[in-house]
Protein 1
Amino acid sequence: MEKFIICIGIVLLFLMLATLVRVILGPSTIDRLVGVNVIGTKATILIIIMGTLLGRVEMYVDIALAYALLNFITSVAAARFFQRNRDVPATASDQNVTIKEEASC
Amino acid sequence: MLDIIVVVFLSLGVLFFLGTTNGLLRFPDFYSRMHAAGKGDTMSSILILFGLALYTFHHPSAMELLTGFKIIFIAVLIFIASPTATHALMDAGYESGIEPWGGENGSEKEERR
């Protein structure tokens, strides 16, 4: 049973690495934020899996709870930041458009 | 018996996360990627956490029971927080003016307008 949980943790780790590809390639900033949100949620679960394997779940559960709350607050705060600041370019093409508009003015 | 249920829960969770990663990498559009990330991530998290909580109930004592209920509490927290974060990110993307995907040749975009 422990070997099965180790396998689950390794598979989750590799899928998180695959999600990291979207964070690196993502065309816009919010695409990267989505990937970071997914990776953070899965990191919460990896912490609990580690606690189960090490036999000290009662300690790791509190760490995972704090991590889940921080991840939620990070996502909402970053979303609010990109909603308020219209000047921050969401994509690279947006930046070119604003530069061209300024040049035409 | 409990082991079989735990194995089923964990495998289903990993399967859902496989679908999430696949959708996040292969969908063409920001909005469809949010669709894959929001639903599959929440579902796989809840399934894996329920499986681990059941695995914690293996040796019944007061401490293990409390730990299992804490894990279920984390599952409830993710069930509330993850769709809220997804909605906030989606709203931010809509406000910053990201265009929806318009089909292979951009043909459906004209019809929508």
Note: Residues 47 and 63 of chain B are 22 Å apart (CA to CA).
Protein 2
Amino acid sequence: MDRVRDGRGGRVSGSAAAAITAALVASAGLAAGWAAGGGGVDLPWAPTWDLRLAFELDGLGAMYGLLAAGIGVLVFAYASAYVPRHLAHQDRPRREEARLHGAMALFLVSMVGLVTAQDLIALFVFWDLTAVASWLLIGFDRADRDARLSALMALLVTTVSAVLMLVGILMLRVEYGTTQLPELFAVAEQGSTVTVAGALIAIAALAKSAQVPFHFWLPRAMAAPTPVSAYLHSAAMVAAGVFLLSRIHPLLALEPGLLDALLVVGVASMAVGGALALAADGLKRLLAYSTISQYGYVVTMLGAGGEAGAAAACFYVLAHALAKSALFMTAGAVTEATGGKALSEVGGAARRLPLLAAGSGAAAAAIAALPLTIGFFKDELFFKAAAEHGLPLGALAVAGAALTFAYMARFWTGVFLGAPRGTTEPLERRLVWPVAALGALVVVGGVVAGPFAALARDAATVTHGEPLELTVAYHLDARVENLMAIAAYACGFLLFAGRRLLDAPLRLFAGAGDRAGPERAYSVSLRGLNRLSNRLHDIEVRDLRASVAAVIVPGSLLVTIGVLFTPTAGAYRVDAPQGADAPLIVAVAVCALAAVAATVPRGHLALALSLSGVGFALATAYSLMGAPDVALVAVLIETIFALLFVGVYSLVPRAVLRREAELHEPRSRRTRDGAIALVSAVVTTLVVWGAFSRPVPRDGMAERHLELAEDAHGSDVVTVILADFRGLDTLVEITVVAVAMIAVAMLLRGRVRG
Amino acid sequence: MTSILSRMVARALLAPTLIVAAAILVKGYADVGDGFAAGIVAALGVLLQYLAFGRDEVMAALPVQRAPVVALTGLALGFAVFAVPLVAGATPLEHWPAPGEEPIHVGSLELITAVVFDIGVFLLVLGASIAIIDALAAPTDGEVES
């Protein structure tokens, strides 16, 4: 721990090294695959449902995959120095680091799977995997209630919306008979199915990208350790949403209304995110609002559509991810060095951290779209697409870019210029050089934009559905993009200079959002659900008698109603018993007698034994009805339970058993219980009698099973069903048994500990 | 403390119970019973030992601490039968031999993969039952009073 404190840093742990290596290998593989022109795999998954594990490294997958893996290398390297410090601050053992790196690697793998998936079901699976990994990562500080709630919020918002997406996918499948994207694009036509399914999938994507009105989870997710934010909330998790919109863009483009909706959501997110970023004080919070706003740009461009929109969206994602992860890492490094977490607590860090200031300066300039950074081109393409779409969107684009300029200037100058504040601690090099590397990359991209443009072009080709041109260059003339950029800088500077005047109205806006915004709706509905669940829980398990009655009473009422109102008149019949039924009737009568007898005894042991008498009589009835397998299992279960009862009673102190046995029931309750028993007995008798009177069906599933059992090399059809025909069910059931075993062991161990 | 007679009966019954369980398991495909029933029969034999001898003596005589391992082995076996056909390019849980093909015979036994799956069920049920029985029999604070 002392080594960490002295600033040189501990060695890179094994788990961190493994994560870095994995990210390096993934980046190299993806880069090589992209250079070689793609390629993919296509394995059958569940052939009877026509599900395939189809993955292909196309342009879109290559770009998002490279972002996730490449930025992953730098973020993991940063984390290898950051996380030990983070754990040391909280007096946690360093081995917990492995958990974070493991979840980061899981996230990387699911992200690569997500962006290369060509089957919507496979895509959905990886989509949820990223949500699970992000839950683990945001909630890394398990002892912190705030972190746990934030992790839950991120999980709920992204997975509940993912269910909508699954509904959309299934609608497409029902309509077109496939979930393979290339096939879908070929056959899908404009219509209500595509509109509704597209809208459902788009909602999931917008929630993942933290767009208005689902944006509230992202600032909360800043409870995560900084490397997690730098990774998930710049290059990966949040990018997955706009990735999905890009992936299914050919479907969305079939319905202009959907694109218009995206446009509205995008512009709203741009405005809300930008305004809140201008007012935010916390460093990471400001960056989170900025992310909302920046992905708002991308969604706007996807909504504008067309060649220019697709190109602008893809290039924007690329440029933004590089710069934003550098800025998140800057925030973490500054907090580690000075102890300040908000703009009001830091300042003047440039002299003490010159390399960090330079790297993050380049990144901030890129977000603000200054020339000589890759960011300039992102806004150039953005302005071009917006201007093509029409004057209103052009004006909104300039306003959004001005906001961006203003809050970025506020962020960087607030952290690095002005009077020095806070303590100064030396930083490990690994907390600085990833920022410097990304800053350098951003500047290189501003000079030699070719390779970046090529990557974005290949991605945009997939989004647009046909080949397109994407070239970026500086033009020293009075074209409209340049004029818009100059206007944005000028307005942005004015906003920055006059930010003190804006403070009060922005605070008001942020306060209104807290009081009546979507986050409030989230917490209100969550609290309501909790209350509902508690109430149901109370009704069901407060006492055993109530829970039994809660099943039996409605159950028998429903059956009665079903019997009385079944439309097929004459279907219910009660035949007179025949001679051959005599043994069965005896068995059932014994069963009934044992049940009645079970109500009499006061002692626990007698009660247990008469209950198992009911079970044994029932088992006899099964065996008489030609169900020897069921009878065998019934006998065995009854035996083991009878013995378990006896064994457990022998562990309970005698005095307790006696005291329990002497408790008397109030008369009213005994009357009520008797009435319930009578009603259910009458109804059950009627139903069972009716069922026995029916002739056994001869052409159902049972006959088919008997025929097929021969093919499956078995003559005991029950076993064949369990192990072969319904083997998947059995597999799930034995998994449940294993989970139950672990749960029982843990519960009982907890009891011993008190 | 239980009587001498019940202890003798319990001890004498253990081996036959396990043999019956093995028979139910192996014959499962041709006759009544399956891995689940076999697992319960075997667990019954062990439960009887618990009742007659108490937990301490059973733990000394039988490897009951391994029960969770046995259960998880069974689960792993089930998943293996589920997953292996995938590697071979077939659908999950596809059994061998295929319909119409003749299985390999060892005496009157037929070797089919469905039985392997059933053995997985057997091990899981046996292990889980014993683990739960053992957890119930473990000493509790309440026992001190008696």
Note: Helices of chain B lie at 4-27, 35-53, 55-61, 67-87, 113-137.
Protein 3
Amino acid sequence: MAIYVILALDVLNGIASLFLLCLGLAIIFGMMKIINLAHGEFVMLGAYATVISANAGVNIWIAMLVVAPLFVGLMGLVIERCLIRFLYGRLVDSMLATWGLSLLIIGIITTIFGNTQQGVPTPLGGFSIGAYQSSYYTLFLAGMALLMMAVVYGVMRYTRFGLIARATMQNPAMAATLGVNPARVYMSTFAVGAAVTGLAGGLLAPVSGITPGMGGAYVAKAFMTVVGGGAAILSGTMSAASLFGAVNQLGAYFTTPVYGEVIVFTTAIVLIRLLPQGISDRFFKGNL
Amino acid sequence: MPARFRIVAQAIAVLLAMVAIAAIPAGIELFTVMQLTLFAAMAVLALSLAFIWGFGGILSFGQTAFFGLGGYAYAVAAINFQDSTPAILLAIVVPALFAAVLGYFVFFGRISDVYLGVITLTVTLILFNCVNSTSGEEYHIGKALLGGFNGMPSVPTFNMPFDPSQVLSPEQSWYITAGALLAVFLLLRLLLALPAGRVIVAVRENEVRASLLGYDPRLIKCLTFILGGAIAGLAGALYVNWGAFVSPTIFSLSLSAEIIIWITVGGLGTLLGPIVGCVLIEYIVANIGSQQLLNSNLVLGAVLLVFVLLLPKGLVPTARDLLLRLVPAPRPKVERLDETLSSQAAPPHPAGAE
């Protein structure tokens, strides 16, 4: 019995981590149709910001929840102004440029901090179910995923900024004639997406090994989840993250972690072949 | 007439390239020849993506899937048969078959741009993960142990056709590798000059129009993809022959990224450009080595960013345009300068680039 509870917790953990990881990319992709291949490096920057500020004596919670998103959000703002704004509407060029950006960021971080692994201890303790151990941090991650979902929904649905953002997403030209400046909306959306990604990096910092190349492990998963989810930011990402997160954890449990990954990748390929516009386009059309 | 001049110029360039290939081992020390052999093998890989991306309009983020499959197919076959002749054939056939299956799956589902990118990227990751977890005695194909992350050491290198006792010397390997590069280049040039090549470019330009003219874009794209896979497989065999070693890093994402960088730097939509870009970038990476201050990621990332933003056409088309501007009459003589860019040069202006 206890083993199933643990398995359920693992699945929950997989879904929550994947959702947090992908939300920033989904915001950027859903709003601007830009695939940010430097996404993994934004996660890495968030994790580094957390580790470095935590080791400098900042409270770990502040480091995770405030420093990481602020830092990566600011970086996102700078990158949007210097790079991304020249690439709107050029999907392939934006992919190439952000891939270049990702290599550049890896290079800079390697130069500064060296190619060594960093880490912070996991806050909150563990608890045991029967003979098995789990940690409260898993539950915290799931809580954060729910909170982020509520925040994104609330902002997009009930605030003026959300209204403008949704309008620009649906029809930039029409929004512009009504007095909205799409360039500014894109700028802030990119910064918000980067900040959310930075938050994910901060939250995942205690449970992952932090190296300059760590982003590579995330970018493919995030990329396929967002594309598999489709254009709707919340429902698409949530459904794809649930599917892939659950498949990954269950596959890893019944075979090996490596084949778990293989199974999830295969699922993604089949899903994209069957629903080329993503899950949300088929089942949650018009939703957020 | 310009057209006749161009044919003469192309013939001269091919002759010069052949002379350069023949003369290089005599004039240069062995270490450099071996390095050039590696560059030539990589340039074949560059040509495979240059063809399907630049002319077929298919951006594959996972060209290393075919490169790696070719490398592994060669290694497994060479260890089992102890003869490289069937192994090289298998290294071309296996990736081509894989490309056929994947291409059927993808193109007949009308999947394009981002989605295609995700699928090719994911396939590469699957292969990497699978091959990576094959360490142990139980994973073997015939006599060949797959070896997991450690890869397969001491793979037999090329020998004379059907004569396993005569293993090729490094100089002979250079002739084979550079000759293969030239042959693939000429083959692709020829294909692009034929009606079939025109159809491939037509599908890239406008699928709907091509299908209204009676061509099936799905089939054309699939065939283009298969040819690209076969060439990448050949490159894999050449690469394994160079190092006598193959490991799962051959499937790595960073190599996939590098191919795209070569093409962006050299010039998309040309065949010469990717070769130039490949040799240039590989030379830079080899010279940076592993020093800390300027690591290769930093340099590659910066180069890619600069080219995408400032020189999106790439080196070769830009150089060609500049030269054509300097010399008002479009005399084919100007095409000689490309000779200095690459020893295996052949004329620019690939058929169907414009």
Note: Chain B touches chain A through 44 residues (CB under 8 Å).
Protein 4
Amino acid sequence: MQDPLAFVIAIAHIAAALALLNGVTTTFGQAKICSQAIESMARQPEAADSIRSTMFVGLAMAETSGIYGLLIAIVMLFANPLVNTMISHLG
Amino acid sequence: MNLEVNNLWVINVFGREIWITETIFNTWIIMAVLIILAVIIRVKLRSFKTVPQGFQNLAEAAVEIFDNFAKNTVGDHLSYIAPWFFMVFVFLLTSCLFSVFGLRAPTADWATTFAFSLGTFIIMIFMGLKHRKGNYLKSFFEPNVILFPINLIGEVAKPISLSFRLFGNMLSGTILLTLYYSLTPLFVQIGIPAVLHAIFDVAFGALQTYIFVIISFMYIRGAAE
């Protein structure tokens, strides 16, 4: 290990990429919500308005996990506490 | 490339530094615009007629549509909180649309969204105590006393998730547009960003504002019923 700081930064970048991988599962969840909503809208067109508003709320709820991943990635890249600790530790 | 919230001035108040950031300055601009609009409506209110026309029609339609939306989502007996959320809706929508002008949207700063979700949180607790009194406090200990810490974490997570949702959406739009502006040559920066602005600022901003208000209503309804 030549440079511990470079190692920490490299690991932080890999961790950010891994945090963004939860977009896969978030997208699957949102796709399921959308397909179910379209199915029920086709079955009951008169209830389309209430189904649409419920669908948007559900989509927003499912999107939260994706947003958390994004925020964790941003913290890893721009405001990583480990890097500051490392810098102060190394002097 | 500039993703951070810039600091414009530092003023000293009683030996304490107060940072006037870009967010605060942009919020002041929005506040000024909204206050002037409100004063104009208040002055024009004297000359309002029974049959609305023109400007009066617009103002009345906005309030009426939001009132009906509140009544449908939160119920008739709780719809007296609609004015506060009308203000939240108008303010958040204006701040999301603010980045269309190339300035940083105040909602792309966690402080702004967290302030508003903290307002929702306080209203939620207040409405729960007002409408259900002891039953609201008892609901923390259900179904068992052992689950009290988990219920408490669930309540505290509500304003945090509510604020992160709006903040993350607006921040992702800001990041993508900053990347686009800083990585592309000058001749593609005319015209094409309009589409990106339409998607990330106007569409996502309006949708997330709507969702912020509707989820606040759902939390309040859940606490008060």
Note: Residues 7-224 of chain B form one domain.
